[in-house]
Design brief:
single chain; Aminopeptidase
Length: 314
C-alpha cells in the first residue's frame, strides 16, 4: 500500500518530465485579415468593366481571362491551369475555359473557393435599353475581385492548414449568356468541372467548397441560402458566425430561398458546398445600372476578411 502511495506522488512528476521531452506542438497558422484590401478589389472590378461584355465568344471574355491570369501571376500564384472544353447545344459551339489556381498544391486536404467570371450578354432587364450592355460590376466582377484579392493576401501569409483551389468558372450565365433571362438557363462550367473531378482530385474529393457571387453592393446583407444549409450546414454556420464577428451588419442568420449557382453542381458531386450571395439587388440586377458606384470596398472587405478567417479555421 505504501508503495502505491509513493508511486501516485511520483506519477505527475514523471508525466511532466516526459512531456518536456516531446517536441513542441506546431502553432496554428494565423492570418492578418486587415491585409485584405477593399480598394484593391474595387480596382479589380473597375478593370473588368473595361472588357464589357465579358460573355462567351465576345472579345471581353478573353480579355477577362488574360486579366485574371496576369493578376494571379503578380500575386505569386504559379500553379494555374485552364480547363478548356467546347459546349455544343442549340446549334452552336462555345469555347469555355475554367481557370484553376492552386495554393499549396502538395497539401492533400483541399478546399474549393469559387466564383464565375462570365457576364450576361445584354441588360435584358433594363427598362430603357434592354439590348444595351450589362456592366456586371456586382454580378460577376465582384466575385472575381474577391478571389484575386484573396490570392494576394494568401500568397503573402503563412500557409493555412488546407490547400486552396481558387476556381474561376466559365459559363455560369448559361449557353445564351442571359442568366435568369433564359428560361432554359443552366450553368456550363461547373457541371463540366465535376464531370472531370478526378483530373484535379485523383485521390479523393475536396473537403468542402464555398462559392461567391454578387458580394460588393452597398448595404450588403448576406443570409444563408437554403440549399447550402441543407448540403453544408456546419460550414454555413461557421462562416456566418465568423462573419458576424467581423462585420455584424453584413451577416444575418435568417435562411433565404434556394438559389442555383455553381455550388449546385459541386453539391451534386458530393462536395459539401455553400453559396455566399446577396441576391436582393433591385432595381439594378442585370440592367445597365450594375456599375462600380453600386459597389463598396467595405462590403468586399466584410466578405474577404471573413473568408480569410474561415480558411485558417477549417
Amino acid at each position: 500500500m505504501r508503495l502505491a502511495v509513493k508511486l501516485q506522488h511520483f506519477r505527475p512528476l514523471a508525466v511532466a518530465a516526459a512531456l518536456m521531452l516531446l517536441p513542441p506542438a506546431a502553432a496554428r497558422a494565423e492570418v492578418d485579415i486587415s491585409r485584405w484590401d477593399g480598394s484593391r478589389a474595387m480596382a479589380d472590378i473597375e478593370a473588368q468593366l473595361r472588357f464589357t461584355p465579358r460573355s462567351m465568344d465576345m472579345p471581353g471574355h478573353q480579355k477577362t481571362i488574360d486579366y485574371i491570369k496576369a493578376e494571379l501571376a503578380k500575386s505569386g500564384v504559379t500553379a494555374v491551369t485552364t480547363q478548356n472544353f467546347v459546349y455544343r447545344g442549340d446549334g452552336k459551339s462555345l469555347a469555355l475555359f475554367n481557370i484553376v489556381a492552386r495554393l499549396n498544391p502538395e497539401n492533400p486536404r483541399r478546399v474549393i473557393v469559387a466564383t464565375h467570371y462570365d457576364s450576361i450578354i445584354r441588360a435584358y432587364r433594363d427598362p430603357k435599353n434592354p439590348q444595351g450592355p450589362m456592366p456586371g460590376a456586382n454580378n460577376s466582377a465582384s466575385g472575381v475581385a474577391l478571389l484575386l484579392e484573396t490570392a494576394r493576401v494568401l500568397s503573402a501569409s503563412p500557409e493555412p492548414p488546407v490547400g486552396i483551389d481558387l476556381i474561376f468558372f466559365d459559363g455560369e450565365e448559361g449557353p445564351k449568356s442571359l442568366g435568369a433571362g433564359d428560361p432554359d438557363w443552366h450553368p456550363i462550367g461547373s457541371p463540366h468541372f465535376v464531370e472531370h473531378l478526378k483530373d484535379y482530385y485523383p485521390n479523393g474529393k475536396p473537403e468542402k467548397a464555398v462559392d461567391f457571387d454578387m458580394v460588393c453592393k452597398k448595404d450588403l446583407l448576406l443570409m444563408p441560402e437554403a440549399s447550402s444549409v441543407k448540403s453544408a450546414p456546419a460550414e454555413v454556420k461557421k462562416f456566418w458566425e465568423l462573419g458576424a464577428a467581423i462585420a455584424p451588419k453584413a451577416f444575418n442568420t435568417k435562411i433565404t430561398y434556394p438559389i442555383s449557382d455553381d455550388h449546385t453542381a459541386l453539391n451534386e458531386a458530393g462536395i459539401p458546398s455553400f453559396l455566399v450571395i446577396d441576391f436582393e439587388y433591385e432595381p439594378y440586377f442585370n440592367t445597365s445600372a450594375d456599375t462600380l458606384d453600386k459597389c463598396s470596398a467595405q462590403s468586399l472587405e466584410a466578405v474577404g476578411r471573413t473568408l480569410l478567417r474561415y480558411l485558417y479555421q477549417p
